[in-house]
Design brief:
Vanillyl-alcohol Oxidase, Chain A, domain 3; globular; binds flavin-adenine dinucleotide; eight-stranded antiparallel β-sheet; 14 helices; single chain; Uridine Diphospho-n-acetylenolpyruvylglucosamine Reductase, domain 3; 522 residues; disordered N terminus
């Protein structure tokens, strides 16, 4: 069966085969797979395969191995920005096809711990709604935006304001089912095939296709006290943020994030980014006289769980929450008066970026190109980065959020494939540009991203790119550093010896089938 549809894939001519569990769409019928959220590159596959099972994924990979030049890219929700989920002339696996809600399952360990078994193509939003609605349970670690797939974020890292405390998403996985580049389906975990397990986490899709992930679940909070405060001084902002992320868990927030914005009333780059909907207003007269071109907004959240007891206990709980928030906020050096708080539901809090999506769809910037740049910058160099980049090159803003918030390296397992800076505390810097038309040309923004990377290199900052986009082995070797690159190459040889998988990352060229003939393929 597989060979039959491989011929169609190569010819890219036949219509969708609706009669089989696996469906294959001719590329012309599926432009989606030739594009991604970034809108900067385009690569047309020979065919899009919609797998109905891990076996279908394995069949596609085995069939690709029989051709000298065929590659296979798993596509999650296509939210990459540089073609990472594309396969020029190859097969794109539409992982969303593996993500029917009925395939999520609650699993209990012998000790009673709860886990969700979810398809690799499930959206985190689907995991959230399924877990909270059916079981009152939820994962601990999220991304800001939840319409991303489990397999897509686990192939990168998966970070948000919870990462400092609960670890990134790659630190919140108990088990994976993976189809490796030799067409074998394996179940791996920290204790079973650990090398494969850790290779795949943050592995940029290079070692296998995640068809199922087992995610630890915890009782879902009921409400969230969500607070934003504003700083004029980056030194104060970072000192406070670092203090907050290094507090003991019983005296810490559940979420710490933040962003830089322009000190003006510009609706896209300035103060309107800060307050919550529903009345709170930003009063710029409260800013200190010497405030510079860029301000900073620290964003914290404390979860509250439902109490199953008497009303006065609920009052006690409310008092406890208020006291805890007050105790943590009191020593912070934000601009007094520029403080905005709200109590929101847990699901609403985690879904907060959906409003951004709705607005961006309305104004056309969701469909426009997104020349985004994501970096991890060591705390050692973040002041210099702020001076040179945020207050320097980007002092007028980027027509989108400039996230800057700290996390802890000790929450990341060094065995995963993710490349991080050296220091224990490092910052996510996410330059999330939205092009609304009338602004600078996209090429200029891409060039500015390159200039920022050059400045980081030239100034000797301890940094790594997140969602890296490099060309060729030399650049990738520099990205990983000698020891980690060697391990990455060794793992590639072990799990995808023909370099069939994730060609859109531009790391390894496809090897001819004759160069290696791993047992699993024929
Ligand atoms: P894709 O873009 O489809 O794929 C990404 C890579 O993973 C590709 O190489 C692909 O081949 C591979 N891949 C996909 N599925 C699988 C699989 N099942 N098995 C193996 N490999 C696979 N990231 C964060 O960490 N935190 C955030 O807060 C955050 N917010 C975002 C907000 C928006 C609006 C957008 C567009 C992106 C955001 N991201 C964030 C980035 C996001 O994590 C990446 O885009 C990531 O690639 C996930 O997107 P995806 O599921 O669409 O994967």
């Amino acid at each position: 069966m597989m060979l039959a549809y491989m011929d169609r894939a190569a010819a890219a001519a036949e219509p969708e085969d609706a009669g089989e569990a696996v469906t294959v769409a001719a590329a012309a019928a599926d432009d989606e797979a030739a594009r991604d959220f970034g809108g900067l590159v385009s690569a047309r596959p020979a065919a899009v395969v919609r797998p109905a099972s891990a076996d279908d994924v394995a069949s596609a990979i085995r069939a690709a191995a029989l051709r000298a030049d065929l590659t296979v890219a798993a596509r999650g929700n296509g939210h990459s920005v540089s073609g990472q989920a594309m396969a020029e002339g190859g097969l794109v696996l539409d992982m969303r096809a593996l993500a029917l809600p009925r395939r999520m399952q609650l699993v209990r360990s012998p000790s009673g711990a709860a886990f969700a078994d979810v398809p690799g193509g499930a959206l985190w939003e689907e995991v959230l709604h399924w877990g909270v609605k059916n079981h009152g349970l939820a994962p601990a670690s999220w991304t800001d935006y939840l319409r991303l797939t489990v397999g897509g974020t686990l192939s990168n890292g998966g970070v948000s304001g919870q990462s400092f405390r609960y670890g990134p998403q790659v630190s919140n996985v108990a088990e994976l089912e993976v189809v490796t580049g030799d067409g074998e389906c394996r179940v791996c975990s920290p204790s079973s095939h650990p090398d494969l397990f850790f290779a795949v986490l943050g592995g940029l899709g290079q070692f296998g296709v995640i068809t199922r992930a087992r995610i630890p679940l915890h009782p879902a909070p009921q409400t969230v006290r969500w607070t934003r405060v504003v700083y004029a001084s980056f030194a104060d902002y970072t000192a406070d943020a670092e203090w907050l992320v290094t507090r003991p868990p019983d005296a810490a927030f559940d979420y710490v994030e933040g962003f830089a914005f322009v000190n003006s009333d510009d609706p896209v780059n300035g103060w309107p980014l800060v307050p919550f909907p529903g009345g709170a207003r930003f009063d710029p007269s409260l800013l200190p006289a010497g405030a510079g071109p860029i301000l900073y907004c620290l964003e914290v959240a404390l979860y509250q769980h439902q109490q199953q007891h008497r009303a006065h206990d609920d009052d006690d709980e409310e008092d406890n929450k208020n006291n805890k928030v007050s105790a943590m906020m009191a020593p912070l050096k934000y601009v007094r008066g520029l403080e905005f708080a709200a109590d929101v539901g847990y699901v609403e809090f985690l879904s907060r970026v959906n409003r951004v999506e709705e607005e961006a769809r309305r104004n056309g910037s969701w469909a426009a190109p997104h020349p985004w740049l994501n970096l991890f910058v060591s705390a050692r160099d973040i002041q210099a980065f702020d001076a040179a980049v945020l207050k320097g090159m980007l002092a007028d803003g980027i027509d989108g959020p400039m996230l800057v918030y700290p996390m802890l390296k000790s929450k990341w397992d060094p065995s995963t494939s993710v490349a991080l800076p050296d220091g224990e505390i490092f910052y996510l810097v996410a330059l999330l540009r939205f092009c609304r038309g009338g602004g600078p040309a996209v090429d200029e923004l891409v060039a500015q991203n390159r200039a920022i990377l050059d400045a980081c290199g030239r100034n000797g900052y301890d940094f790594k790119t997140y969602f890296p986009s490099y060309r060729g082995e030399a650049e990738w070797a520099r990205h990983f550093g000698a020891a980690r690159w060697k391990r990455f190459v060794d793992r590639k040889a072990r799990y995808d010896p023909l370099a069939i998988l994730a060609p859109g990352q531009n790391i390894f060229p496809r090897a001819p089938a004759a160069a290696a003939a791993p047992g699993g393929i024929v």
